[in-house]
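can u do me a favor
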């Protein structure tokens, strides 16, 4: 097990390349030396505020230089970060703060009012609205070890109540190293992150960038996609991490596909599967960029990736286990499933969580003991299949399977067909209770502006490509589909419409 902590990565970068840009955000440009000194001041300030090793410090910050500083300052103090969506409402925020027993909450001006209200509901919690007040002088008395708690990251709660995933420095450093290896990252990278740092996929853009001694360009979101195109050009971005919505919007922008981005060499997708039609469109739009399709869970962050040279042979696969780990499909009898057989995905490696915060029962349901005390095996709960060469294919989240007319319906199969139709921006298929069918299949579609699509057209398209029991009994057209904090489509909300 590596003895390094996440804070050590920043120190190493500051010692080696102190004047190099570490973070670019909102007009600020922090060098590695700047970021290292700022993190030290925050760590010292937290120590003077009686934050101790193992305490949880919640971060409710939009993407900014301050957010990056807060992450490393809290970790340097020996405390664990609890990244929270800055758009959370008071009641949910108070519930999460109480659940993890947060000792402090760091927020910015945009989330201050909500943070004050939630902190008042919780009671004994220190509210920090300005990092400048943490400019302490004394270093923390007990710096963290690699085995110490580094983060409590809450799952998105798309199929139930959010759970607090606990990760050590060693867990997160392991993932960062593995990602750097398979993405072939080095210190020349300039990564554009439009994903919130409160979202695991966004947070690891910061962690891997610092570990690789690269440059991270932070934007607060994707509300103004035209600006993002400008940033790609002006900042000479080499890597763009995204989720399906980001890439759909990017592809829909007038003129984007005709522009040339000579520095852009990598596109990465996670958070939700990228439909095959979008894969093909992205490759046409950015022919010089390698596209990495990835799958992961908060419980281990990343499970597998598809090497770009395999896209032609298996564009619907999510690939192979990330370096240093194992992933396989297990049948109902506990054996490794045969090629093509659907079963539960199982994962093993140094990236597996320590467990769920304050939830022994849920932890026991997902984690199995391995061959040594440090070895943990994660039962993902997701249904997969593998081909003859061991490449993995996502089938469905177990909770998403629809049982209609006595048959199992996999939403992704219908969604892939919908995405083939020009004008479809987003699609989600859900099951709704029905006295006759058991569950009725409902499709929800967001269309691009100006698309001439209605329910009849969409149902005819499905009827042409799908078996009868897979054709949605209802198709609802939206301007936008509802989403949860991580950017995933909110299927629970759609099922209630």
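np, heres the sequence
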């Amino acid at each position: 097990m590596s003895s390094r902590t996440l804070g050590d990565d920043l120190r190493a970068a500051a010692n080696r390349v102190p004047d190099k840009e570490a973070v670019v955000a909102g007009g600020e440009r922090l060098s590695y030396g700047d970021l290292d000194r700022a993190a030290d001041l925050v760590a010292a300030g937290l120590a003077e505020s009686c934050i101790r090793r193992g305490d949880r410090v919640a971060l409710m910050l939009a993407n900014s230089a301050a957010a990056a500083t807060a992450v490393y300052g809290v970790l340097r103090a020996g405390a664990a970060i609890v990244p929270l969506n800055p758009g959370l409402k008071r009641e949910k925020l108070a519930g999460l703060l109480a659940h993890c027993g947060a000792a402090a909450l760091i927020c910015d001006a945009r989330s201050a009012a909500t943070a004050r209200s939630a902190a008042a509901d919780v009671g004994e919690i220190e509210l920090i609205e300005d990092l400048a007040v943490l400019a302490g002088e004394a270093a923390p008395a007990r710096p963290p070890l690699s085995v110490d708690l580094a983060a409590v990251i809450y799952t998105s709660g798309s199929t139930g109540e959010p759970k607090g995933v606990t990760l050590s420095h060693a867990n997160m450093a392991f993932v960062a190293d593995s990602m750097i290896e398979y993405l072939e990252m080095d210190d020349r990278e300039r990564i554009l992150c439009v994903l919130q740092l409160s979202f695991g996929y966004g947070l690891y853009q910061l962690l891997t960038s610092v570990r690789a001694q690269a440059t991270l360009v932070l934007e607060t979101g994707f509300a103004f996609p035209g600006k993002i195109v400008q940033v790609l050009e002006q900042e000479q971005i080499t890597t763009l991490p995204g989720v399906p919505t980001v890439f759909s919007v990017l592809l829909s922008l007038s003129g984007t596909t005709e522009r040339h981005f000579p520095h852009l060499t990598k596109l990465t997708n996670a958070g939700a599967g990228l439909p095959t039609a979008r894969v093909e469109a992205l490759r046409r739009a950015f022919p010089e960029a390698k596209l990495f399709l990835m799958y992961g869970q908060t419980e281990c962050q990343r499970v597998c990736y598809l090497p770009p040279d395999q896209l032609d042979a298996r564009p619907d696969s999510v690939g192979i286990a990330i370096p240093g780990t194992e992933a396989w499909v297990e049948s109902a009898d506990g054996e490794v499933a045969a090629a093509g057989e659907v079963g539960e995905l199982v994962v093993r490696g140094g990236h597996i969580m320590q467990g769920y915060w304050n939830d022994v029962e849920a932890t026991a349901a997902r984690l199995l003991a391995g061959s040594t005390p440090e070895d943990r095996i994660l039962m993902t709960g997701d249904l997969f299949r593998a081909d003859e060469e061991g490449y993995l294919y996502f089938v469905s989240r177990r909770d998403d399977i629809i049982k209609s007319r006595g048959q199992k319906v996999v939403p992704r199969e219908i969604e892939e067909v919908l995405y083939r139709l020009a004008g479809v921006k987003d699609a989600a298929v859900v099951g709704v209770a029905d006295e006759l069918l058991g569950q009725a299949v409902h499709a929800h579609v967001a269309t691009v502006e100006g698309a001439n699509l209605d329910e009849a057209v969409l149902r005819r398209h499905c009827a042409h490509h799908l078996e009868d029991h897979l054709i949605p009994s209802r198709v609802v057209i939206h301007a936008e589909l509802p989403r949860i904090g991580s950017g995933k489509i909110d299927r629970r909300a759609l099922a209630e419409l």
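The longest helix spans residues 32-48. hope that helps!!
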